[in-house]
Amino acid sequence: MEIKERGNWGSQFGFIAAAAGSAVGLGNIWKFPYITGRYGGAAFVLVYLLFVILVCVPIMNSELLVGRKSGKNALGAFKVLAPKSSWWIVGLMGIIAGFVILSYYSVIAGWATAYIFKSGAYMAAGANPADVFVAFITSPATPIIWHAIFMLMCIGVVSAGIEKGIEKYSKILMPTLVLILLVLIIRSVTLPGSGAGLAFYLKPDFSKLSAEGILAALGQAFFSLSLGMGCMITYGSYLKKDQDIPVNSYWIAGADTGIAFLAGLAIFPAVFAFGLEPGAGPGLTFITVPAVFASMGAIGHLFGILFFFLLTIAALTSAISLLEVVCAYFIDEVKWNRKKAVWIMGIFIFLLGIPSSLGQGVWSSYKFIGGRDFLDSLDFIASNILLPLGGFLLCIFIGWYWGTDKAIEEGNIGAKGAITLGGGYRFLIKYVAPIAIFIVFLKSIGVF
Question: Residue 291: pLDDT band by 50, 70, 90 thresholds?
Fold first, then answer.
């Protein structure tokens, strides 16, 4: 009865759409395409896919089966599977990471939401897209208002529940995201001069595939799939026993990779067609891409709206999973009802995001970890420490504490035979995945 009260996914497509939506986020749009071009195009993609299969899919299988076996949130799952132990701390790290990441992620997502309506500003005659962006994010109040609007969208979806909220909207948002991407790709690759962008993005260049590029592929694969933050454990806890976890893991990983790849096809041909320099991060998204749209004339106005609507959808599908991770804990362990948990946690997350917003402008002189502003400091704590450590400890838990025999038994319940967990999974989760993720951790904290 308890599992029913928590909710379940209504369909396999709904679950895959929600889980893939969790994985597809801002990083897919502005980071994956850029590092693909920087580190050898198709050569980088091949290495990236190898890490997805050998490292990320085994971890995703593990998180999903831990969630389904326990029927609990990220922290409660470890209490169920390892009672009277300290393994629950791994789940707590995921919940803290989700809380922290969403606080600043919502700020950046608010920028994307605002830019749906700002195409007139960066397309105005004589406007400099960089000046428009800087003036916007350094404003004390306006970005906070958009941060609040985005958080209200998250709260609205998550408060409606699993099947009627997260699943319902994911089934709408994810196909919409793909459709908009395809429209943008068609326009981008048909621009005069787009071939240079396609060559930058797709032409295999193994000379660029240095040790740094290989590490970049490993780190991007891990972070892109929402691993180590409790999202897949939480989403897995709403799975029914007849769901095929091994096959679903490949669907989720494939959807995430496919959308990231398509984003590059939409961006780089256009960037090169207009003679602009490719970059990564907010600079690409809020300065370079708007400059492209401004160069297109009147049609650029429409494509600008479509692009930032796409970016908002990608951000929203990730953000609702982060909010669900946090709220599931209070629903399961503190026994709050869903609406109470969502609204209280949503408000606290919004409040934590305010310093991240102000740190771009009036509080920019305040520096924290390693001279970083507040937003970058929170990102360092969550992305560079909590997530890789969480992923590493999950591998140790499955491979060396709870046991791969139990994991394989649970993971294969509902498996239809096309793909099952077995000796390969056992080897990867015990040896390959933890070593790889520990390398990601050492790289992320600057050891090398």
Answer: very high
For residue 149, is it left (φ>0), alpha (ψ between -120 and 50) or beta? alpha
CATH number, domain with residue 301? 1.10.4160
Residues 78 and 90: beta-carbon distance below 8 Å:
yes
Rounded Cα–Cα distance for residues 225 and 235 (Å): 13
Tokens of residue 87, six digits: 């393994």
Contacts (Cβ under 8 Å, ≥6 apart) of 172: none
Q: Tell me the residue length of the chain.
A: 448
Write the DSSP assignment of 330-353 as a string of letters.
HHHTS---HHHHHHHHHHHHHHHH
Alpha helices in 274-422 (DSSP H): 282-283, 289-295, 298-332, 338-358, 374-379, 387-396, 404-411
CB 136 within 8 Å of CB 107:
no
What is the mean predicted confidence (pLDDT) over 130-147? Answer: 96
Number of domains the chain contains: 1
421 phi-psi bin (left φ>0, alpha ψ -120 to 50, beta other): beta
pLDDT of residue 2: 39
Please give the distance of CA 35 from its chain centroid, rounded to a whole number. Answer: 16
> What span, in angstroms and rounded, lies between the C-alpha atoms of 227 and 414?
22
Residue written as token pair 């497509």: 13
Q: pLDDT digit string (tens) for 174-222?
A: 999 999 999 999 999 999 999 999 998 888 888 888 898 999 999 999 9
Taking each continuous run of H as one helix and of E as one strand, the counts in the chain are 25, 0
Helix (H, G, I), strand (E, B) or coil at 157: helix
Under the banding of pLDDT at 50, 70 and 90, the label for residue 401 is: very high
Collapse the DSSP code of 418 into the 3-class scheme (helix H, G, I; strand E, B; otherwise coil) and give the result. coil
Cα torsion 316, 321, 326, 328: sign: positive
And the tokens for 440? Answer: 């990601």
Could you identify the residue written with the tokens 């026993």? 241
Provide the Cα torsion 64, 70, 71, 75; round to 10°.
Answer: -80
Pseudo-torsion of CA 191, 192, 193, 194, nearest 10°? Answer: 20
pTM recorded for the entire structure: 0.94
Q: Which sign, positive or negative, has the C-alpha torsion 116, 121, 126, 127?
A: negative
Torsion of CA 86, 91, 94, 99, to 10 degrees: -100
Find how far residue 40's CA is from the centre of its chain.
23
* Domain that includes residue 91, residue range: 2-444
Stretch 366-370: mean pLDDT, rounded? 94
